[in-house]
Amino acid sequence: MTTTQAATEAAAAQTPGPGVEREFTVKARSQRQQIVRRFVRNKVGMTGLVVFLLLLAFGFLGPLVYGTSYSTQNSGAQSVSPGVQGYPLGSDEIGRDLLAGLMIGVQRSLFIVLLFIVIALPLGLLVGALAGYFGRWVDSVLMRFVDLILTVPLLVVLIVVASNFGEARTPLGVGIILGLFGWLDLARIVRSQFLSLREKEYVEAAHALGASNSRIIFKHLIPNALGSLIVWTTLAAATAIILEASLTYLGFGVNNPSSTSLGRLVSDGVQAASTRPWLFYFPGITLLVIVLSINLIGDGIRDAFDPSNRRVRA
């Protein structure tokens, strides 16, 4: 018997005859795996993530490679145009390298965003969870307090607070101020989520089994509201960057030149936009790219968590 005949007989022996069903193994994916798969296949979200990671590398790894400090002042290279005398993006009126300033500005702006989220996320989650889960007078008291604060525009509140605490006009102070007044929308979102989730069957089952309120909130309700929390985090981060730039432009944000931010660089470059446009446009474009990338990530995460999204197969 030849080798070809032997292979043919072996294949025929392995092939099931008529009426014999083949067995297929289907590997089930968890909800987390499906969400990650949807996000990875979302071109918009992945584009935003790649751009955001590049900005992180630019802000935190760039100074290690570039080697020029923003605090260094060169009296012989004041207001130098981009690409002249070794300044890729030019210099300001006192001879500081704008590229080094952008790197520090990205660091400070992202630090403000991180501090904002660390403060606002727990506050909004706590207030919204208590109001939505317990309802009745707890809901009325907490939500009326939130509504009272929301009647005043957030930017006005931030300006009043910053004007009365001049020593807080640093990246640390601005981040704390934004965090203390930036959780109101999240509280309303979490409340609406909890009002719906607390009526689900698994919550009633947990009550019947004797689970405590804290266990139900942390083990059942918060995980099921995680999608809304993540989407809010990404969109609120972009809003925090814009608010910081707005405060600084109005003179109530970061006012220490040694602790610069993108908002500070844009504010300083506005007056020189007609004569030295690089001082305004480069920080402004960097600011817009950060906000756009975070918004794209938020859109991708929202689509990934949406169970009705059928554009990308899980």
From TrEMBL:
Renumbered residue ranges of the record's region Disordered = 1-20
In its keyword annotation, does this UniProt entry include Secreted? Answer: no
Localisation: Cell membrane
Gene3D superfamilies registered for this protein in UniProt: MetI-like
The name on file for this protein is: ABC transporter permease
Sorted keywords for this record are: Cell membrane, Membrane, Transmembrane, Transmembrane helix, Transport
Instruction: Classify the protein's membrane topology as the record does.
Output: Multi-pass membrane protein
Q: Tell me where the transmembrane regions lie.
A: 44-66, 110-133, 145-166, 172-190, 229-252, 278-298
The question of whether rRNA-binding is a record keyword is answered with: no
* Family according to the record: Belongs to the binding-protein-dependent transport system permease family.
Residue span(s) of domain ABC transmembrane type-1: 106-298
